[in-house]
Amino acid sequence: MEDLENNKASNNDESEDDEMDFPDEDIDEMEKMNFDFEAFPPSEEDIEGLENLLAQIFLRAEINRKELADSIIKISPFGCVYKPAEESEDEDSQSLVCGVLSIVGLTGKEKHSADVSNFVLQRAKKFATGSIFKQFERCLQANDGGNEVLQLKTGFLINERLLQFPVQISAPAFSSLCQQQNSDGIQNPKKKVGKAERRKLLTDTSDVIFDNPEEELLFTIQQQFPYFQYPVESEVESTSRFNCIRRNGQVYRPYRRICLLTEEQFLQFAQLVSNSSF
């Protein structure tokens, strides 16, 4: 399962939007950080940074983020975190974790596995169609005793970065993840559940801004897969850059899209990212 995009949507009701002060997105005016970044295997010193990134995904959800971060570290060197290169480190940046790419299993008995599964199913029940909900339910209720679905080995893809972090790092990171996924001794879930964050126009569902640009490639693969999206505007502080933004006179609102991929679909997507030049 894959958490892929941070979405924002635009409202055509200008009278309502004019009463609210949405920030204009001006990347040129944003504070710039001058660091060289590298991908490193997750380690114990990254626990706080991982928790902060997981908070971006789950916002106000009741999920034990420390336990989930621990699970990412336990399967290291599988996956990676993005941090300042060693020659660029200073006292302020030593503990800085700017992104993470990993897959954690959801078919174990750990509490965070049940928490994430319940989180997805609650939103699927509310925002997905009945048929799509049943597909998610079949994969995510694999912890029930004696359930043959256990053979599916569902995993959760975590692809999260700080907002406006350079997308160029995604190609080598996904390439490495593909190699690790096919290596002996690495968990190899048959289903992937992932969350993508995106921004879209309410008046035109084709007008979507992906906060992680590489995740748009997922929707170019030929094979269809179930997904749904849910709004997160009410879960984000009004002053946050993850909330609504105004671009070219249109207001974009934040959504999360949750996708259910087979292993073949995931590897196809990962290969597309690996071969891309952003």
Task: Summarize this structure briefly.
With 278 residues, the chain is of the alpha+beta class. 28% of the residues lie in helices and 25% in strands.
Describe the protein in words.
The chain has 278 residues and is of the alpha+beta class. The protein has a single domain, classed as Aminopeptidase (3-Layer(aba) Sandwich). 28% of the residues lie in helices and 25% in strands. Strands 1, 2, 3, 4, 5, 6, 7, 8, 9 and 10 form a ten-stranded mixed beta sheet that branches. α2 packs across α3, α4 runs antiparallel to α5 and α6 (170-181) packs antiparallel against α7 (263-274). It is globular and about 50 Å long.
Query: In total, how many beta strands?
Result: 10
Biggest sheet: strands, sense, closure?
Answer: 10 strands, mixed
User: What order do the SSEs take from the amino end to the carboxyl end, as H and E?
Assistant: EHEHHEEHHEHEEEEEH
- The total domain count is 1
Counted by DSSP, the helix tally is 7
Helix/strand-derived class? Answer: alpha+beta
- Here the CATH topology equals Aminopeptidase
Strand content: 15-25%
Q: Ends: how far apart?
A: 24 Å
Mean pLDDT: 81
Reading off the top of the CATH hierarchy, the class is best stated as Alpha Beta
**Contiguous uncertain segments of 5+ residues:** 11-15
Bin the helical content.
25-40%
What value does the Rg take, in angstroms? 18 Å
Oligomer state of the chains in this structure: single chain
Assigned CATH architecture = 3-Layer(aba) Sandwich
Shape label: globular
